[in-house]
Write a structure and sequence with these properties.
Helix content: 25-40%
Largest sheet: 8 strands, mixed
Low-confidence stretches: 1-8
Shape: globular
Number of helices: 12
Distance between the termini: 47 Å
Number of strands: 16
CATH superfamily of the largest domain: FAD/NAD(P)-binding domain
CATH class of the largest domain: Alpha Beta
Mean pLDDT: 94
Number of domains: 3
Structural class: alpha/beta
């Protein structure tokens, strides 16, 4: 196959284009595999070995929706199959106050994906990347060492916000509406949780309690034990769900979660009575400020690097967009690099590449996440109420989490939302 008259990954003179990627997560590794497949020389710089990644603490509980999951399949990276690890629908409770369920919405995810322990995924991927001919350098890269290694690559892509890399990328004040964390987060992988029998399919469970925050539960494939469950609690700071300050052990975190659910969602608390966190490394607490950054990073020497993934688009996990955004960015970046042929990777190209992604997908990913961080407006509650009785509306709501751009423009327009409700009612 040729691209613009030359073999992808090669200059017309026969030299191979050399791409450096800082970070061995979703964005970095997926980009690396995509370019490696097209003949590029790719080096991934990871701060940990595959074994260290596998044995690390839990970093997130995530669900990869259909299109992002398909990108992995196309690259031959879907190494985990079997029952129990994938949700096929959603089950949402909206509560006006603790313990007071106002409505319930159940629907199918028409393009489902997979929920997988990222420690298993990235450790396997990093080893596979080297097996396929990529170069892996295990070292802790900081700004100083990035300055030293950058001249050896035609393009350096930074996909991690660690080691103060965020300082290289200017905060985009116009696109970053938050200046502090919107939720205090608690995540855990649990065993011994009773199955959810209220849907005919494995479901992502959502509980929204007005003024307090959100609870999520999902079928989850643990790196050691296989099919289990992943939990995420999103607590509005200072409100009733925010009870995990000072928790230091898995047992204490589990007991606190059980008590929170007894107080706020007793109809699901019973599912957790016999549950426990699988081990001390499989839970986390934390908080961060959602931020959009500009994609061009400037090193002290003036040399430029490009940002991708969380380093330029850091969203709260409430909408499940972080991993999916990273995958979509990696796919878009792969296509942009291929289309660029043997031309230099200038700051203008970096900005144009990111802007194209932002216009087509990124702005909707961020706007949808920010929408869920706020109390639902009346027209959205009206839609959810209608969706509780009309399955096509429910299916649309849950399936669109995988493609947030499909929510626009109707989700921000009371008139267009009402038109959709009436159309469904007339069908």
């Amino acid at each position: 196959m040729s691209w613009q008259g030359v073999t992808p990954g090669h200059h017309p003179g026969g030299t191979m284009r050399n791409i450096g990627i800082i970070g061995a997560g979703q964005a970095g590794l997926q980009l690396g595999f995509g370019l490696l497949e097209k003949g590029y020389a790719v080096t991934v710089y990871s701060d940990r070995t595959p074994e260290q990644i596998f044995n690390a603490r839990l970093a997130a509980t995530t669900y990869l929706f259909g299109r992002a999951h398909r990108y992995e399949q196309e690259l031959g990276l879907d190494f985990w199959t079997g029952p129990g690890e994938s949700a096929r629908g959603g089950d949402l409770d909206v509560c006006a106050a603790p313990g007071q369920r106002a409505l319930r919405v159940q629907g199918r995810i028409l393009n489902p994906g997979k929920s997988l322990d990222l420690r298993a995924k990235y450790s396997r991927w990093l080893a596979e990347f080297e097996r396929r001919g990529g170069t892996v350098v295990v070292r802790d890269v900081d700004v100083e060492s990035l300055e030293a290694l950058a001249p050896g690559h035609d393009l350096v892509v930074v996909t991690t916000g660690r080691n103060s890399f965020t300082r290289l990328f200017e905060r985009d004040a116009e696109r970053s509406i938050h200046t502090q964390p919107q939720r205090n987060l608690v995540a855990m992988i649990v065993t011994g949780m009773k199955p959810l029998h209220e849907t005919p399919y494995p479901a992502l469970k959502f509980i929204l309690t007005a003024g307090h925050g959100e609870y999520f539960a999902m079928p989850y494939f643990d790196r050691i034990r296989g099919p289990l469950n992943g939990l995420l609690l999103e607590a509005i700071p200072g409100q009733g769900l925010d009870r995990f300050g000072g928790v230091s052990t898995a047992r204490e975190a589990m007991e606190r979660m059980k008590q929170v659910l007894r107080d706020f969602s007793p109809w699901v608390a019973e599912r957790l009575e016999g549950a426990s966190i699988v081990d001390e490394s499989s839970w986390l607490t934390g908080a961060f400020t959602p931020t959009v950054r500009k994609p061009v990073g400037r090193l002290p020497s003036g040399r430029t690097v490009m940002g991708m993934g969380d380093v330029v688009m850091l969203n709260d996990p409430i909408a499940g967009q972080g991993l999916n955004s990273a995958s979509k960015q990696a796919h878009a970046m792969t296509q942009a690099i291929l289309a660029h042929g043997d031309q230099p990777f200038t700051p203008d190209w970096m900005e144009q590449t990111f802007e194209h992604f932002w216009r087509t997908e990124g702005q909707f990913i961020t706007a949808f996440t920010n929408l869920l961080l706020q109390p639902p407006p009346p027209h959205v509650l009206r839609y959810l109420g209608a969706a509780s009785a009309m399955s096509p509306l429910a299916d649309t709501f849950f399936d669109n989490f995988g493609e947030p751009q499909r929510f626009w423009p109707w989700i921000v327009s009371p008139e267009e939302t009402e038109a959709r409700i009436q159309q469904a009612a007339a069908a």
